[in-house]
Amino acid sequence: MAKARDRIDRVANELGFSKLRPGQREAIEAALDGSDTLAVMPTGSGKSAIYQIAGRLLPGPTIVVSPLIALQADQVDSLEDSPAGEAGQTNSTISAADRREAFEDLASGDLEFLFLAPEQFRKPEVMERIAASKPSLFVVDEAHCVSSWGHDFRPDYLLLGPVVEELGRPPVLALTATASPPVREEILEQLRMREPAVVVRGFDRPNLHLAVRTFSDDHDKREDFLAAVVEADKPGIAYAATRRRAEEVAEALTARGVQADFYHGGMATGRRTQVHTAFLEDELEVVVATTAFGMGIDKPNVRFVYHHDVADSLDSYYQEIGRAGRDGEPADATLFYRAEDLGLRRFFAGG
């Protein structure tokens, strides 16, 4: 055991992690033992370090399922100058030549990490090439997506259990920042995890100020929301229940002099990437989005997360407000609440 701890510490130091945080070591050790592992750890606690360190220590490539193309790009970029190993991605924005190169590197053993969205596994060529590479670890990032039943739901997450079986059943490492006990059980069931190690760590974020403003009139709520965003320290993220509302709120903020844009699953991939990049590079002050935005976003200085509408679940709310204050500095999380807004969430849930 001491030898294994020494190996983990050595690789962690090589990758720039001076000290492992609570939960990281337990999850890494479980993955190295060949156990299926579910790690539920708060935003900013270094979940990516778990698969980077484990992947480096295990023979064979690491397959990372990541739900958003922009997030995949962030993860690949973060590994570009890292000694963790070569990383590549395959998705709809990658040219045929780059995809071919990534799979050739995977086959030759030169690629340690391959990032892809769950939809990619519908392609027989992708399945064949990944299975031939004999992956040593199958990572499901943002694993709560297997139970996110909303209008931005990704049904291909439900295919990942059978996918793992077809790939030769490598150990599964599922990562998420939020999962209540029922959601944890659903993740374990949908991913067909066997005798899993479940690592759950504390969720207190003392630098976040949580508040609720209540309204009886929709117009009053909208005006108060817009005024609050105008006055708030920026940058920030605002969440809306529908794509149309996200667009309307972004337009209203722009009219009030805020550098704002909208983001949702109905936009073209290139447009979404443009908004995501502009926000990361501080070219936008506010992004108004449905739940599609912010997943895994590595932006430490988000000063507020405001909800124009109630989130679809407590898990989603925690996940979304967790994108604020990752630098440890004070940040605000405020819900602008009208009881009638719950009707829309009930409608989505009923569908």
Q: Let me know the average pLDDT.
A: 87
Percent in strands: 15-25%
Q: Based on DSSP secondary structure assignment, what is the total number of beta strands? A: 13
Structural class: alpha/beta
The portion of residues assigned to helices is 25-40%
Question: What is the first-to-last residue Cα distance?
Answer: 50 Å
- Along the chain, the helix and strand elements come as HHEHEHEHEHEHEHEEHEHEHEEHEH
Q: Per the principal axes of the C-alpha atoms, what is the gross shape?
A: globular
Q: Whole-number radius of gyration?
A: 20 Å
Q: Counting H and I runs of at least 4 residues, what is the number of helices?
A: 13
Q: Looking across the biggest beta sheet, what order are the strands in?
A: 3-4-2-5-6-1-7
Sheet bearing the most strands, described? 7 strands, parallel
- Point out poorly predicted stretches: none
Describe the structure.
The chain has 13 helices and 13 strands. 40% of the residues lie in helices and 17% in strands. By secondary structure, it is of the alpha/beta class. It has a seven-stranded parallel β-sheet, sandwiched between helices. The chain has a six-stranded parallel β-sheet with strand order 8-13-12-9-11-10, sandwiched between helices. Helix 1 crosses helix 3 (47-57) and helix 2 (24-32) runs parallel beside helix 3. Strand 12 (304-307), helix 12 (314-321) and strand 13 (331-338) form a beta-alpha-beta unit.
